[in-house]
């Protein structure tokens, strides 16, 4: 028996089949009202990454159109089928499409490219979700008690040799670079899985006064922690089955299986993936194969 499986990644959705285009929105409403109405209508079909309301191009009739981006192509398709031709908050029926036909392209500003042919080999790597989006997505599918995070280690790496070598020497002796590295473990207790992520945050401080440095240190620690959480969620896939059941899969790396006692001194600058700060000249990562087998 075939089982429908929807794969959810903790990355910014870029596929066209996850974006719903809504048009024929009357100009009698404010953008704020339209935004709230569109969000309330379409969030019922699944978690939304983005809702954007825009005025029609000057060559078109007055009015608005909206872009609704889902994490799931199946949910975008379901929403399109269920809402097309219904008026909802206006008397005139709204129109919905996932792949906008060329006859309606005039509605969109020339600066916006909505329907362009894309080839997988030339697609840029999808960006990771923000820390808040990772939380919202995991809460939606797993519940508030379905996952947890804890800090494995958080270190001040400002004075590491590699950090000093990679940082520009300040002209002002009062200037200093503050840098923190963090390892966070995300755990999914109902699935018996966990994975770890690494985050780095740094900032140049132009004064060594304690009232300036101490708040900066607290902020950088939070940034490093949030980046580590995002890095951990990048290794997670959610498999949403047709019956509503959610299965979690994690990509386990070597550092993820180290014991906590083996992590002493592990957060060094040369252990941090610096490609996130300087992507130029970096070799492409080897393709990672996901094991999507599901035990029912």
From TrEMBL:
Keywords: Cytoplasm, DNA-binding, Nucleus, RNA-binding
Domain RRM: 18-101
A single GO molecular function term of this UniProt record: RNA binding
PROSITE patterns in alphabetical order: RRM
InterPro entries in UniProt: DSRM_RDM1 (IPR057652), Nucleotide-bd_a/b_plait_sf (IPR012677), Rad52_Rad59_Rad22_sf (IPR042525), RBD_domain_sf (IPR035979), RDM1 (IPR040224), RDM1_RRM (IPR034200), RRM_dom (IPR000504)
Xref: SUPFAM superfamilies: dsRNA-binding domain-like, RNA-binding domain, RBD
GO cellular-component term (any): nucleolus
Keyword Nucleus: yes
Gene3D superfamilies (UniProt xref): 3.30.70.330, DNA repair protein Rad52/59/22 (3.30.390.80)
Superkingdom: Eukaryota
Biological processes, Gene Ontology terms: DNA recombination; double-strand break repair
Transmembrane segments: none
Subcellular location: Cytoplasm; Nucleus, Nucleolus
Subunit structure as annotated in this protein's UniProt entry: Homodimer.
Name of the protein in its database record: RAD52 motif-containing protein 1
Organism this protein belongs to: Esox lucius (Northern pike)
């Amino acid at each position: 028996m075939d089982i429908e499986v929807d794969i959810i990644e903790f990355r910014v959705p870029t596929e066209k089949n996850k974006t719903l285009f809504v048009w024929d929105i009357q100009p009698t409403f404010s953008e704020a009202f339209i935004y709230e109405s569109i969000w309330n209508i379409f969030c019922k079909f699944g978690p939304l990454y983005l809702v954007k309301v825009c005025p029609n191009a000057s060559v078109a009739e007055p009015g608005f159109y909206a872009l609704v981006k889902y994490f799931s192509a199946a949910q975008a398709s379901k929403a399109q089928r269920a809402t097309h031709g219904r008026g909802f908050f206006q008397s005139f029926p709204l129109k919905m499409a996932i792949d906008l036909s060329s006859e309606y392209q005039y509605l969109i500003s020339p600066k916006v490219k909505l329907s362009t042919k894309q080839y997988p080999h030339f697609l840029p790597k999808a960006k990771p979700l923000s820390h808040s989006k990772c939380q919202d997505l995991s809460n939606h599918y797993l519940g508030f008690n379905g996952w947890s995070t804890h800090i494995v280690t958080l270190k001040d790496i400002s004075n590491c040799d590699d950090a000093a070598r990679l940082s520009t020497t300040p002209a002002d002796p009062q200037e200093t670079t503050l840098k923190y590295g963090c390892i966070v473990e995300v755990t999914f207790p109902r699935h018996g899985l966990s994975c770890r992520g690494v985050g780095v945050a740094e900032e140049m401080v132009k004064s060594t006064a304690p009232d300036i440095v101490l708040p900066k240190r607290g902020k950088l620690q939070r940034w490093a922690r949030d980046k580590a959480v995002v890095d951990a969620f990048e290794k997670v896939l959610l498999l949403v089955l047709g019956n509503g059941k959610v299965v979690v899969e994690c990509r386990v790396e070597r550092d993820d299986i180290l014991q906590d006692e083996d992590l002493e001194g592990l957060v060094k600058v040369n252990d941090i993936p610096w490609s996130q700060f300087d992507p130029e000249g970096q070799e492409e990562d080897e393709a990672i194969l996901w094991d999507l087998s599901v035990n029912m």
